[in-house]
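ARCHIVE RECORD
Type: protein–small molecule complex
Small molecule: 2-methylbenzoic acid
Source of inputs: curated submission
Record status: active
Notes field left blank by submitter.
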Amino acid sequence: MSGTPFNAGTWLTTRQVAEGNGDAVALAGPEPLTYAELSERVATVAAGLRSLGLRHDDRIVFVTSDDVPMFTGILAAFTAGFVAVPVSTMLGARELGEIIADSGAVVVVAGTDYATQVEQAVAGAGELRHLICDGDKALLGPPGVLTSTWSELVAAGELQPADQREPAATTEDTWALWLYTSGTTGTPKGAMHRHANIRHVGETYGRTVLGIRPDDVCLSAAKLFFAYGIGNSMFFPLAVGASTLLEPRRPTPAIVGERLRRDRPTLFFGVPTFYAALVAGDLDDTAFAAVRLCVSAGEPLPAALQKRFTDRFGVEIIDGIGSTEALHIFLSNHPDRIRPGTTGQPVPGYEIELRDASGAVVAPGQPGSLFVRGESIALGYWRRTQASRLVFQGEWLSTGDTYVRSEDGFYTCLGRSGDMLKAGGIWVSPTEVEARLLEHEAVAEVAVVGLPDEYGIDKPVAVVVLRAPATEDELILWCRDGLASFKRPRHVLFVNEIPRTATGKMQRFRVREMVAL
Ligand code: 3SK
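STRUCTURE (tokenized, with ligand):
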């Protein structure tokens, strides 16, 4: 083995025990576990996985709810030198099957709630040898695949000799985590992350932006199968000996309200759509009393929504942007330097460049494509050379977002690079028009896209979800008053829902389809 020895699994678990924090609470719920208990459990699961005869770098897919089996299973995969591949539980059998087959997974761990789609999905997974259900009853597997339950895996781990509980001799560069992403369109691609990437996000965003401390308790509305969620619920708290709360259910404002009341988290993580639902919901104004800071990512947090949330619940939100390929947030507001409507400044440990079409770095005030460089950038997409070459350019990651930087170094998102539209020959950022519309008290959600007029010239059109009555003319006038006139939407279409991905990101191509009808 060459390279610098490092194992993210032990760094997140037994390191705390070795440093004398074994009695501190790692998992605060649903099943509380101290760092000592978590480390024991992870070692047992690692031994159980080894008993299946896996080899280094074998992939283990998790299609499970956020709970102790998934949490310990991912940490055990890191510890034993296997690759954890947490996959969205919202996918249907076809997409799930593509990911399981593409990753070459040898083991699939499935939640009982997802039995039907997983049983269908594994039918074409040629390399699969074990299908493990996290409930009491084994699933139905295709011929040649051994099926068992999570308790049987744990029992097998308990019977293994002590050396099977030891961490694998991984290095900083060993694969640890593959995260599948399809962006807002396209087929899923597996972004391959090394053990060292996990440490990097903990030491950069976690420490320097969140300022996370051992007395923090984290609650994330984003699930462990998202890069955003696994950082929030696993990497940041465990990197400093803090506590995390897992929520197996699909988060709703009511469920979050219940956890806020009962478990009193100090850090809360959501996406703009979820903050909008919290503002529209009926939670008590004191619901966030124990929370010292909220975090938003996934897409830009409109300044008007940020203000409504903070006015109502009395806690600040810091907005940031990350990506599955960068593992977590690399550009963010800082709790001491929040500028609403912007994505803040580069997270220490990352460099940002805004480039024009020729690749030259643009001056402040000029829009450019956002590139980021830092130690947590993925190694590429598994078996996707063409897509990898476009996105991973040397040390730089091309994010596909268009941003502008102010003279004093704050970055504002103008949209995805293909989303900018020209009106009257001048570039218009859809997010700027959306931000203005969201300042209107009747507007709950909005998407702005370009629609060609009778001459084929793009004009801004707004698709709006209302929270109170408003007319098309009123909203157009509102934009004319608050923006340069050419940026105003020429039409407003009222809808019940804006199309979004599972992570809450707006699907502009589907919005375009809506307005084109
Ligand atoms: O979309 C984001 O902003 C994000 C943030 C953290 C981790 C992953 C992602 C995609």
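CURATOR ANNOTATION: Residues 35-50 form the longest helix (16 residues).
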